[in-house]
């Protein structure tokens, strides 16, 4: 999806860069290699863009103009209609699965509007109504209370202990990060996937980690609610 947008807009002077948030770079390698050599794709194994730009879920995006200035803060990003909006839910599914799929239908459907906003910015630049000035970017950015700063430090400590082979200590620090900044899904999903992904697999979408973290992705998603899963762009 984003590679196609990059191809579409590159001749107009726009570069679409995608960044994978993965502690283990090998998990993202298949997608990075698939994008090569035409689409710029990076891996952030230390989650620095979480801290610097306020990324709290994926996919999210920021807009940066030709001077290096941020003109839209981190927000939920999509460029096509949500496949979940009209998803059918079969009557014979287990009740818990019905609940999960019902919440997924509530995910913000911003694809068409967000794509139109990007194209307007490409055409009009700073004159686009979707390009914000500095004060508006700051006002629209997520607040960064002290707890969120501590969460970033705890996540980094967990990363350190994980890399050093100290699994138990890593889990302790990551659990603290999750508690301090519960809306940061990359913090949670990075820790969960290390516990739930089968040997040799790239990822585990279910991320059932009740035995370690006392939860799962589906349980947290339902508790949060599909409509609150991300930062809805104000377009």
Summed up, the domain count is: 2
What is the number of helices?
10
Biggest sheet, spatial arrangement of strands: 1-2
CATH topology of the largest domain: Glutaredoxin
What is the N-to-C order of secondary-structure elements (H for helix, E for strand)?
A: HEHEHEEHHHHHHH
Question: Could you report the average pLDDT, rounded to the nearest whole number?
Answer: 92
Morphology call: globular
Short description:
By secondary structure, the protein is mainly alpha-helical.
Give the SSE layout.
Blueprint: H1 2-9, E1 18-20, H2 25-35, E2 41-43, H3 48-53, E3 60-64, E4 70-76, H4 95-104, H5 111-124, H6 134-140, H7 146-163, H8 167-180, H9 185-196, H10 217-224
Parallel strand pairs: 1-2
Antiparallel strand pairs: 3-4
What does this structure look like?
- By secondary structure, this protein is mainly α.
- It has 2 domains: 139 residues, Glutaredoxin (3-Layer(aba) Sandwich), CATH 3.40.30; 83 residues, Serine Threonine Protein Phosphatase 5, Tetratricopeptide repeat (Alpha Horseshoe).
- Strands 1-2 form a two-stranded parallel ribbon. Strands 3-4 form a two-stranded antiparallel sheet.
- Helix 7 packs antiparallel against helix 8.
- It is globular, with a radius of gyration of 19 Å.
């Amino acid at each position: 999806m984003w590679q196609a947008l990059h191809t579409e807009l590159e001749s107009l002077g726009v570069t679409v860069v995608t960044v994978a948030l993965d502690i283990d770079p090998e998990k993202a390698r298949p997608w990075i290699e698939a994008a090569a050599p035409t689409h710029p794709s990076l891996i952030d194994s230390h989650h620095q863009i979480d801290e610097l730009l306020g990324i709290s879920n994926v996919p999210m995006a920021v807009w940066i103009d030709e001077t290096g200035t941020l003109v839209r803060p981190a927000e939920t990003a999509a460029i096509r209609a949500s496949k979940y909006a009209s998803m059918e839910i079969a009557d014979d599914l287990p009740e818990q699965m019905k609940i999960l799929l019902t919440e997924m239908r509530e995910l913000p459907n911003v694809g068409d509007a967000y794509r139109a906003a990007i194209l307007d910015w490409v055409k009009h630049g700073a004159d686009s109504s979707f390009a914000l000035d500095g004060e508006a970017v700051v006002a629209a950015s997520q607040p960064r209370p002290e707890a969120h700063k501590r969460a970033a430090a705890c996540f980094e400590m967990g990363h350190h202990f994980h890399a050093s082979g100290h699994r138990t200590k890593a889990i302790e620090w990551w659990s603290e990060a999750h508690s301090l900044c519960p809306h940061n899904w990359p913090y949670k999903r990075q820790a969960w996937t290390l516990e739930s992904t089968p040997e040799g697999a790239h990822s585990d979408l279910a991320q059932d980690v009740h035995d370690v973290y006392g939860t799962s992705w589906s349980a947290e998603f339902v508790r949060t609610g599909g409509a609150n899963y991300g930062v809805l762009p104000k377009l």
